Amino acid sequence: AIDISKLRDESGHVTLDIGYKNTGATKSAITFLDGEQGILRYRGYSIEELAEKSTFIEVAYLLIYGELPTAQQLEDFQYELSHHTLVHEDMKKFFDGFPQRSHPMGQLSSSVCALSAFYPESLKTNQTPEEINLSIIKTLAKMPTLVSWIYKRSLGHPYIYPKNKFDYVTNYLHMTFGQRTEDVDIDPVIVSAMNKLLILHADHEQNCSTSTVRIVGSSDSNLYASVSAGIAALWGPLHGGANQAVIEMLEKIQQDGGDTDKWIAKAKDKNDPFRLMGFGHRVYKNFDPRAKIIKKACDDILEKLGINDEVLEIAKQLEEVALKDPYFVQRKLYPNVDFYSGIIYRALGFPTDMFTVLFALGRLPGWIAQWKEMKENKEPIGRPRQIYTGETPRSYVDLDKR
Ligand code: ACO
């Protein structure tokens, strides 16, 4: 492929590709995605195999350092992480200052950025690889603490401190569902479901939030600030925010009597802004492989937990109708990862507005791996061009003459 960044056109010509539909912004060795075939691999390993056999923290290591860890490397990694799970006590004041009902994604983005104030060594330019690694460990280790505290704050419950005897995912669940007054047993079914969900979200090459992390990092911004920007990008309903939007849509359809044909018709009506949330993808023009795994996991988890959720039935009906409808078939619109994930989060007891935060927790290793790769490749500052469509030169008009 021609590296167009090396081609400087003295005449000022630029390539216009609004939404970067066909523009590659980097070379990356992290995630392989074939949207036509529905293939997704992290560092060469298929998503299906990783979701079945691996744990989230192993996958995080794989994405960030390039290889699956040996038993010793995994132990060392967990040990290092467990020594950075606490966040500065003053961060509590930060959460106390938010209105109790404010959206968790706003709280997460600002609190992750605020970590740079508490751990200012991250602001140093020209960090050594060891210093970069420490920022990586701190970000990974502290994120579950922040995420669970945001949840506890929304309930008005006391914050729960990490217990470092637990593995990464169990520790997160302990801080989320645990109580100060007594130890709460974390159901292994829930630990396994969370591992699977987080693995499926861990990376997805140059999506909107990951590109944001890379572009912010390309100005030599610190890791906390770059991840915070990624969280902001993920928040939107066209990206990670779709998992919240899907459940809200399914609940609305349920309250409306469950007439899926009516809602499919609304999604097809070009005069109606409504879109079938959780359907369609910029890159997948075949089934999203993550959606297949999540759909199966959803059935399994609901059965294991003994939950009968009517919303799951509506989701399945919608999918069945849409997959036969020429509108969706012609446009190659299939369910994406967000279509079924919210149903699992709901079954696990998470409130709807926490869903996108859980996506962020899963995507964190991918953001970190991509930020690290961008730094190691010494990529130049990201700076797209534009085609100017504004006014031609004109003279200033004094205020009394306008
Ligand atoms: N419902 C109805 N029609 C749709 C949908 C949908 N969910 N998605 C796309 N379309 C239609 C568009 O109206 C357009 O139709 P047209 O050709 O007649 O104008 C055509 O399909 C192509 O859609 P675009 O918006 O051009 O596709 P793009 O690649 O820009 O957008 C996106 C992809 C944002 C994911 C889109 O499919 C969408 O809005 N989906 C719903 C939100 C969603 O689920 N987002 C999560 C994505 S996955 C993730 O981020 C983790």
TrEMBL record:
<dbReference type="InterPro" id="IPR016143">
    <property type="entry name" value="Citrate_synth-like_sm_a-sub"/>
</dbReference>
<comment type="similarity">
    <text>Belongs to the citrate synthase family.</text>
</comment>
<dbReference type="GO" id="GO:0005737">
    <property type="term" value="C:cytoplasm"/>
</dbReference>
<dbReference type="InterPro" id="IPR002020">
    <property type="entry name" value="Citrate_synthase"/>
</dbReference>
<keyword id="KW-0816">Tricarboxylic acid cycle</keyword>
<dbReference type="InterPro" id="IPR016142">
    <property type="entry name" value="Citrate_synth-like_lrg_a-sub"/>
</dbReference>
<dbReference type="InterPro" id="IPR036969">
    <property type="entry name" value="Citrate_synthase_sf"/>
</dbReference>
<comment type="pathway">
    <text>Carbohydrate metabolism; tricarboxylic acid cycle; isocitrate from oxaloacetate: step 1/2.</text>
</comment>
<dbReference type="GO" id="GO:0036440">
    <property type="term" value="F:citrate synthase activity"/>
</dbReference>
<protein>
    <recommendedName>
        <fullName>Citrate synthase</fullName>
    </recommendedName>
</protein>
<dbReference type="InterPro" id="IPR010953">
    <property type="entry name" value="Citrate_synthase_typ-I"/>
</dbReference>
<keyword id="KW-0808">Transferase</keyword>
<dbReference type="GO" id="GO:0006099">
    <property type="term" value="P:tricarboxylic acid cycle"/>
</dbReference>
<dbReference type="Pfam" id="PF00285">
    <property type="entry name" value="Citrate_synt"/>
</dbReference>
<dbReference type="InterPro" id="IPR024176">
    <property type="entry name" value="Citrate_synthase_bac-typ"/>
</dbReference>
<keyword id="KW-0012">Acyltransferase</keyword>
<dbReference type="InterPro" id="IPR019810">
    <property type="entry name" value="Citrate_synthase_AS"/>
</dbReference>
<feature type="active site">
    <location>
        <position position="338"/>
    </location>
</feature>
<feature type="active site">
    <location>
        <position position="281"/>
    </location>
</feature>
